[in-house]
Amino acid sequence: MSWIEQQTSRNSRAFPPTQRLQPADRGPGARKNPEQAKVPPRKTWLWFVLILLANFMLARFMFPTPDAPSTVPYTLFKQEVGKRNVAAIYSQGDTLTGRFTTAIVYQPLGEKDSGPSGEAITKSEKDSTPGGETTSTDERGRSTGSLSQPISVFTTTVPSFVDPGLEQFLISNGVEISAKPIHEGENPWATIFFSFGPGLLFIGFYIWLFRRAAQQSGGMMAGGLMGMGKSRARRYDQEQAAKVTFEDVAGIDEAESELVEIVDFLKDTKKYTRLGGTAPKGVLLVGAPGTGKTLLAKAVAGEAGVPFFSMSAAEFVEMIVGVGAARVRDLFKDARENAPAIVFIDELDAIGRARGQMAIGGSSEQEQTLNQILTEMDGFSSRQGIIVLAATNQPDVLDKALLRPGRFDRRVVVNLPDKTGREAILKVHTRHVPLANDAILGNLAAMTPGLSGADLKNLVNEAALLGARREQQEVRHKDFLDALEKIVLGPERPILMSRSDRERIAYHEGGHAILGLVVPGADPVNRVTIVPRGQALGVTYQRPDSDRYNYPEAYLRARLVGMLGGRAAEEIVYGTKTTGAENDIEQATGLARRMVTRWGMSERLGPVQLAPRENPYLTGLNGYGDARPFSEETATVIDAEVLKIIGESYDEARRLLSTHRRQLDVLADALLARETLNEQEILDVTGLPHALALETGMLPHPAGDETEPEPIGAARSMER
Q1: Would you identify the CATH topology of the domain 499-696?
Q2: What is the model's pTM?
Q3: Can you tell me the distance from the alpha carbon of 553 to that of 55, in angstroms, rounded to the nearest whole number?
Q4: N or C, fewer C-beta in 10 Å, the chain?
Q5: Is the CB of residue 28 less than 8 Å from the CB of residue 238?
Q6: Where in the chain is the domain with CATH 1.20.58.760?
Q7: pLDDT value of position 584
Q8: How many CB atoms lie within 10 A of CB 50?
Q9: Fold of 419-488
């Protein structure tokens, strides 16, 4: 595949911005909302109390409190010891606390239905009535009535008189005399944990969640439920972040000059208002992704020294209808309270699309948000010192009400940088990068047509990483070349290929390179490699000598011939076709179709637009869908003209490669031996000079045409 197709397609594509605004709305200079709720309201605390009570009752039900030791007579204690039914005791003064081996049921003397004396019955001696009530019987078999609960842990008091044989009596009956209390009662920490722990954890989590929502969104009272209607704009203050000025912006001098007046107005408002003039309310920044729209807006705020509120348009819209409008109101309220200030809305097309054309399901919320933006921009005066900056990649889809005077008065186009601009951008990003003597920024700028500021920043970073990986002290020119290949095509792929496959790839790429040297007006061949990268098995790099803004038909036909050179070389050498030319065919077909349908380069159809206008800032076509503005007969003619242009270009590629077959073989052998050749090595191996300039060349013509080649005439205009 040829790299020149990659370069042209990248004119409308850029990497997303890598620099993001840091939230600073909670810094020292931030506005404090007097309505911000720090704690939940009073009614919520009543619910907290009810939750704790419910948790306590549930804990008591699931974890009942163990019974306290029961007091028994000393005589009963001695009897149970004699029965060897006492497991252990603990003595503290004249009080004994112990534990029965088998729980007993003790009925004190004098209770109702009791016998002549108190008695104790073990569990094995109990029986139950048919109704399930526990009863006891005396030695004669008479019922003594219901009994109390069984006793496992007891306490008794030693009489005042001395029982000298008690210790020996206890030991002989197997009673353990312990120095540790038998029963210490319930652990208070366990009581607190089981009774209140889960409830307190729930309440604590709720309060934390509430305070976090209040901190980020301004509280319930300020922005609705959990601050949903509070603006999420990030505030950028010079005291809280690194200062960004116009010195940090390079390569977009035209757009920068358009904003100088805005900066001057914010610095000295009275200078313009004293004569009755007003600054524009809104400035719309239009450009491809990565061209520096957000950075330019930050530089405006940095130069003016005013607060900068940044928010993406997608952050306004939520599932709940009305939230977007509420956030818009809060955003402009913040701006008024901190005036003079700048409000920056990124990706304005997310909510600014023409009303009535939005997606079903979200049109109501988006239209309400858009209407609120229109109302707010009408509601404040430019004398207040509030400037609204917005950025978009699709200005053609915006609602016309946004673009009328009094709202977004100015449109600033941020184009891709030219060679001089790319060199200036590289100087900015290489301030802290040690460069080798061979790393000339001017040459790098010439090698990177179509790259945006974000692309160049990424290029410098990748080159620095490669140099560090290679344990170098400086970044070399080769590091930049390898980084460029990695960015465009991806990293190298270690693929084990056969000799025949490598040879076919060498001839394929050699075909591209030879045509780049012999076709008049072709872009110079900078590098050829058969090292697999990304999805490509080989690459031919072609770059223009200078930035192009107007493309003659002869140049486009020269590009078509070069694109089809790989397929033509394979067919000439091997007599067969492979799938390796898929991308070349795709690029050639697209270019030929645009020549016919958009640029009027067909004699049969003439200068008629038969395809929709492409978005100059985004990749891809805006297709007509099923409603094509031409007939089926015209569609047939379009297809025929596209086939004709491609057929003529392919025949010309075969003719030129057949003429230079020897150079093709030599170049393929060199690629097999070295894998990668630079521009000078290509010229040395082939012995061919650079291609003739377009002004001194002739239009390519089909092979076998007996007529004289048509001289190149005046160049026709072509949209960029």
Answers
A1: Methane Monooxygenase Hydroxylase; Chain G, domain 1 (1.20.58)
A2: 0.62
A3: 83
A4: C
A5: no
A6: 499-696
A7: 92
A8: 11
A9: Helicase, Ruva Protein; domain 3 (1.10.8)
